[in-house]
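re the bet — no i am not wrong, look at it urself. input seq straight from the record:
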Amino acid sequence: MQTTWCMAKKRRKHDENKMSVVTNLSKKTLTDAQISLLSKELKFIPTRKTIDKGKLLTDLSAWERRMRL
């Protein structure tokens, strides 16, 4: 069984390797936060802290209607 420290070390090393995947082709210098965000690739899905239930129901109704057509 691995210790928490060992697992954290592996995670940190994995994160460092992921950061090298990003290639900046522009002249703009990227911050560490921007590189970290880009390293998440297409798996990153931002979510809101609060959900607007009215908008959610409206969107679901519209989607449901489109599926029936």
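see?? The helical segments are 4-19, 32-39, 53-68. told u. also Residues 1-44 form one domain. so pay up
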